[in-house]
Amino acid sequence: GCGCIRHHAVEHFAKTTDCNLVVIDKLSYATLGLIERRKSSTKAMRSATGCIACPQGSFCPTGSALPRPCPAGSFGDDSGLGEAGECTPCPAGSSCAIAATAPTPCSPGTVPSSPLNTRCDACGPGFYQDQSKQPGCRTCEAGKYAGSAGSFTCDECAIGYFSTKNASSGCLRCYDEFGTAFTTRGEGSTA
User: What is the model's pTM?
Assistant: First the structure.
């Protein structure tokens, strides 16, 4: 006799004496626990036998048998979301995997993947990022280099080596046209 269908999302419930259910506008899926009633932008959780609000990191469309994960590039930090559009887009400088409950800030040396911020990727050789939560990598200037992916600084070319271009992944040894090695005036030489 209960109007709540176990493990199925439902749109409306009527209060019955058998189940002590409450009429609701939108709700997640049915099992034992809580239900959610939405009115404007306010939310109120109510106890009822057989129903719970859709969990964080997911949304529960009307008629769905189970919660669906928020798509990669978004997150659900609130319970009771009814559709994918209610998942929050991942902010710049962070990544959001599928079913994320919160954004993950990208650490130094990494930036969000394009275009949806689904993961943090290492900056490539010749590029760096010295801060967390940044939208893009920075370029090493001439006279400096980043020899590996994921760098959070650029190193200056050593004495006797140089780099004439930006985004260098290494420095060149100083030679004259006869193959004789030369030195530079100091570290970070551009010629």
Answer: 0.65
